[in-house]
Amino acid sequence: MRKKKKRVKRTRLKNLSYKKIIVLLVAILLIFIIYNVITQKTSSIAKISNIIEQTNYGKITRYIVYGTHLNIEGNIEIHEQNKIEKVQVVAKSISGNELIIDTEYDYSNNLLSFSTLDQINTELNLEELDVTDYYILLKIQFLDNDVKYYSLLNDTEYGNIDYYTLTRNGRNNKIHINFGSYKEIPFLGLNITKVNKLPEDVYDMVIDPGHGGSDSGAINGKHKESDIVLDYAIDLKNKLEDIGLKVLLTRDGSESEDDDMVYNIYDEDGRVTLANESKAKVILSLHLNSNEVEITEGGVEIYACPNSDLTFAKLLATNIVNIADTKYSQMETYKEAEGVYVRTIEIDRNRTSSFTRNYKGIFDSIPYLFITRETGGIATGAYVDGTNPNYGENKYRNSNVGLEGYLIELGYINSDEDLYNILENESSYVEAICTSIDTFYKITDD
Ligand SMILES: [Zn+2]
Questions:
Q1: How far does the centroid of ligand 1 lie from the alpha carbon of residue 217, in Å?
Q2: From the CA of 262, how far away is ligand 1's center (Å)?
Q3: Ligand 1 centroid to 368 CA: how many Å?
Q4: What domains can you pick out in the chain, each with its CATH number?
Q5: 349: CA distance to ligand 1 center in Å?
Q6: Which residue, 220, 270, 305, 338, has most beta carbons within 10 Å?
Q7: Residues 6 or more apart from 6 whose CB is under 8 A from it?
C-alpha cells in the first residue's frame, strides 16, 4: 500500500513538471515562429535592397491580375531622358533570378510612363514562378551601360492579393502579392509558398453552361441548347477533375424552370457572382450557335476577349475541329483566326440617354456574350453598374482580379450536320477542350 501511494505521488509530480516543460516548449516554439514570420519579409527584401536605388522610386497606377497573369502600369520621374537606353519591368527573385517582362514606355516632361499591359493575358505568368520571394522592379539601362533598379509604390486603390496557382499533381502555390516598405523604400513583392490543398472556396476553373432556367437558348425540334450544353458542362467538369483540377459549374440543372438565368447573373447566386467569388483563373462558357437564315455551313466559333493573346483560343478551335471531326465556322465578322473571334460589346458611356440606361444592344440580342466580359473585372471592361435595375449590378465590375474567359460556340444547332455531331460525338468535343486546357496550362506534364 505504502509503496503504491508513493508511486502515485511521484507520477503526479512528474506530470506536473512535464506539463510545465511542454508549456515552456510551446511558448518557445511560438516565439520562434512569430519572430520568423516578422523577420522573414524584412530579411527577404533586405537581400535585394542593396541593388535598389534609395533616393527615387516609381509609382504603380494600374495593377491587374487577369487569369494567370499579372500586369502593371506606372510612371517614374527621371531627369536623364537622353541617357536612357532601355526600360523593363522585372521580377527579381531573392536568389538572383530575373524575369524580364515585356514593357512599353514613353517619356515626356521628365516623367517616364511604363506599361506591361498591351495584352491582358500575357507577360508575368504567375503559374511559372519558383517557390521563393520576388520583387517587381523597374530596370533602366542607361547609355553609359549603367543599370539601375527602382522600387515601386502602390498608387492605386487596390491592395494585396492572394493568388493560388492551378492544381497540378494535387498541389498549388500560394502567391501573396503584397505592397510594403523597407527602410522607407516602397515595394511590390510576391511571396510564394507551397500549399497542399486549395482553400475550400477557391477553384481552378469555372464551366458555365449557357442559358438555363426559363431560358432554353436556341432550339432545333426537341433539342434545346440549354440541355445540351449542361450535359457537356457536367461531362467536361468530370474530365477536368480526372486530371486533378477543381471545377465549379455556374449551374448544374437543379435550378427550377422559372429561374431566370439570364437576368439574375449578378445576384448572390448568379453566375457572374459565383464565378468571381470562386477565385478561379479561367471560365469557359459553353453554347450552341444558331442562325435565323437558312444555313448550310455551321462549325466552331471561339470568342476571346479584346486585347488578349489568342494562343489558347486558337488551340481550342484547332483541337475541337480535329478531335471532334467538325469544321471551323465560315462566319467572317469579328474573325481573328480560323474559328477564333473577338467581339467587343460596349455601351457608349458618354450617351447618358435611355440608350445607356437600358444597356441597349448589349442584352437584347446577345446576353450570353457578357459572361466573359463581366467576369474579367477592369481587365475586360466589365460595366453593368445597376443603371438599369432589371439587370442588377455587377459587384465585381471594378475588381482588379478577373477570370480569363472564353466562350465556345460548339456548333450551330440549326445545322443538322452540326447537331448530329454534337449529340453523337460529345466525348470527342469534351476531350478536345480538356486536352487544350491540359496542354496550354501544363496541368499533367511536369
Ligand atoms: Zn447560347
A1: 5
A2: 11
A3: 6
A4: 50-195 (2.60.40), 205-440 (3.40.630.40)
A5: 26
A6: 305
A7: none
Q: What is the pLDDT of residues 5-26, one digit of tens each?
A: 445 455 555 666 888 888 899 8
Distance 268 CA to ligand 1 centre (A): 22
Q: What are phi and psi of 366, to 5 degrees?
A: -135, 55
Find the 410 Cα to ligand 1 centroid distance in Å.
10
Q: What is the Å distance from ligand 1's center to 53 Cα?
A: 54
Task: Report d(CA 324, CA 430) in Å as an integer.
Answer: 9
Which residues have CB less than 5 Å away from ligand 1 (the ion)? 210, 217, 287, 368
Cell of 251: 449551374
Q: How many CB atoms lie within 10 A of CB 56?
A: 15
244 Cα: distance to centroid of ligand 1 (angstroms):
28
Q: How far is the CA of 42 from the centre of ligand 1 (A)?
A: 52
For the record, the C-alpha cell of 314 comes out as 486558337
- pLDDT, one tens digit per residue, over 169-211 is 999 999 999 999 998 899 999 999 999 999 999 999 999 999 8
The better pLDDT of the pair 201, 266 is held by 201
E-strand ranges in 292-379 read 301-304, 335-337, 340-342
Q: How far is the CA of 306 from the centre of ligand 1 (A)?
A: 20
Distance separating alpha carbons of residues 335 and 428, to the nearest angstrom: 25
- H-state helical runs in 328-425: 354-357, 370-374, 416-424
What's the gap in Å between 435 CA and the centre of ligand 1?
23
Helix (H, G, I), strand (E, B) or coil at 339: coil
CA 205 to chain centroid, in Å, comes to: 9
Distance from residue 211's CA to the centre of ligand 1 (Å)? 6
Beta strands 69-77; 111-115: pairing state: antiparallel
Sign, CA torsion 75/79/82/86: negative
